[in-house]
Amino acid sequence: MSQVDANMSRMEKVSLKLDNGEQLDFNGRLFSESSWYDEDEASITSQKLYVTDTHEQVYSVISGSESKRERRAYHIATHGDSCTVNNGSTEMTLPFDMLMLAVRSLCRLDDDATPSLETVEETLRAANC
Known about the structure:
This protein is an alpha+beta fold. It contains three helices and seven strands. The chain is globular and about 40 Å long. 6% of the residues are buried.
């Protein structure tokens, strides 16, 4: 069995309930996850990256404290130089460079801190995307 076939056989049905009232359902597998505690906000954040059986990605973020919790997820499909992002209720298609610019801005990263398109593509290839 090839590595790609082995990865596909590990796919399972995933259902993510979101705060926007929607639910993202897909067949996929967990590719990466991390979590951290923010002492200033007294909250913990968990993020997971899934690879779907159609070679797309789903990014899930859950953060919360004793008083509140947020659950968000984004289904991301790339199409050449553009990508489509769906949060369960809204979908938008934009150039890949614009997505990287938005990530840089939201994360307050310097240009040097943002991974290059080549680095992102290498990561996606490693995940068999």
